[in-house]
Design brief:
single chain, mainly alpha, elongated
Length: 92
């Protein structure tokens, strides 16, 4: 048995009663797996918030999540680059 939550369990935990939310997101290619990693569960929380509180449509959620993933990736690359530069400076 897996310790990963299902998408439906995450939505239930968040108090999301909209039975069409998950199918709409899945039609956009989002949250297709039945069980979610912690990162995916956080993205589902964000998706529900974007839709419920800001009125973003599922396609917009897909764009926002893609941009967020890209930003997180670039931030990590920047940290790695800065670490290498500092190591180079310290080793001179």
């Amino acid at each position: 048995m897996s310790s990963r939550p299902s998408a439906k369990d995450v939505l239930k935990f968040l108090g999301v009663d909209d039975t069409e939310l998950l199918p709409e997101l899945r039609r956009e290619g989002l949250f297709e797996a039945e069980e979610l990693s912690p990162e995916e569960a956080e993205e589902l929380r964000m998706a529900a918030t974007l839709i419920r509180e800001l009125g973003v449509n599922p396609a917009g959620v897909g764009v926002i999540l893609h941009m967020r993933r890209r930003l997180l990736f670039l931030e990590e690359r920047m940290r790695e680059t800065l670490r290498r530069l500092l190591d180079d400076v310290e080793n001179r």
